[in-house]
Amino acid sequence: MRGAVIITFIPKQDSDLTQVKNYRPISLLNNDYKLFASILAKRMKKLLQEVIHKDQAGFLPGRQMKDNIRNIINILEYLTARNEKQAMLIFVGAEKAFDNISWEFMLKKLEAMHVRQEFFNGIKAIYTEQRAKLFVNNVTTEDIKITKGTRQGCPLSPLFILVLEIFLRSIRKNKLIRGVTVAHNEYKVKAFADDLVLAVEELSRSVKEVLEEIEQFGQVAGFILNKKKTKIIAKNMEQGLIETMQQQIGIEVVKKVKYLGIWLTPKNIDLFQNNYTPMWNGIKRDLEVWGRMKLSFWGRISTIKMSMLPKMLFLFQTIPIIKGAVIFKEWQRTISRYTWQGKKPRIQFANRCERKRTWVPAESITDEYLVEEFHSLFPDKPKPLARFWEEEFGPTDDEGFSCLCLCGFSCLRRGGSGGVRGRRIRLGSSTSGKRSERMGGWF
């Protein structure tokens, strides 16, 4: 692929910025390249869905990082209940995982999969010759030749998980590596891009085999283990055994590790304190800063939606912990105080939380849509929809019957029968009888 791209550097959070290794290189690519690479990536994802094991959750549709996190949390909970099982969770840290992948190894993997020649030629054109310029302190360097790695910021970066799957498959097939066994299921590995977690029992043999597998894979694929970044959480192990294992393998056993944005410890009881509490303390600091700014009402609403809400939703979806209603009331009061600048709210909280009324475009109102809304409102009414409407709310013409939008259903949900407001929406020119027949049947 001829023509140099620009590489800029983003510092890693909470790291020593005097070290080059603590910067993440992001490639700035032109639109022509992105369009071509996106087409290849879209076609490739259909193939990856079939060949990538469900243990990998990154880059593929329908797979989310919360699945991996919940799996690890469930393993920790299981091991807490089975205190006779000694186990280790190894959080693997790789040395520049994306930047060190061997092109030759990656292309041979694609060849072994017997992809179409045209597709293979497109990938090969990109990963045969690359040049880049570094952009540092507003200065652009001369061209640098690139000979390995997948670009972070490139649509084709999912090729990394294709290469990684070879290593994970080897781990799964290795009988000398004993995963955590739950009933008849064995859990060995979970991965989200280059964030790997290995769960093992029979520690001496299993850990040794894992390190050998990583070394062998690194020799052919360029995957390099960083023992300083790699951490271990031990479960049901005595301190003497933990210290012995640390000396043998050279990897630190810790009480707390951050995985995919979530702080994990050997005891799940600490999840709330280690995740929700710091998140809320950070939000309160932000609210204090924003409260001193001259923001409009809608500006304050936007700051909540764009900055605060995503942080909370991430934790709710990833580690949904029920801690009682007291903490939520405290959050509600704090957010309300910021929204209304310490004054009495002009809108009651119950009204603010009411279901949003939405006008539905005429082309979206179909018979199936009306039936679905009817079911949600009256699940215990086994009558044809048209007849039920006339018996409950009186006779109406075809146009009146057609005028069922979300606002109207919202009125019914509140127990009102005052009809539907707004312009009427006609679904077709059929008569009331025909519509009754079409919407008939027993729902």
From TrEMBL:
<feature type="domain" description="Reverse transcriptase">
    <location>
        <begin position="1"/>
        <end position="253"/>
    </location>
</feature>
<dbReference type="Pfam" id="PF00078">
    <property type="entry name" value="RVT_1"/>
</dbReference>
<keyword id="KW-0175">Coiled coil</keyword>
<feature type="coiled-coil region">
    <location>
        <begin position="193"/>
        <end position="220"/>
    </location>
</feature>
<protein>
    <recommendedName>
        <fullName>Reverse transcriptase domain-containing protein</fullName>
    </recommendedName>
</protein>
<dbReference type="InterPro" id="IPR000477">
    <property type="entry name" value="RT_dom"/>
</dbReference>
<dbReference type="InterPro" id="IPR043502">
    <property type="entry name" value="DNA/RNA_pol_sf"/>
</dbReference>
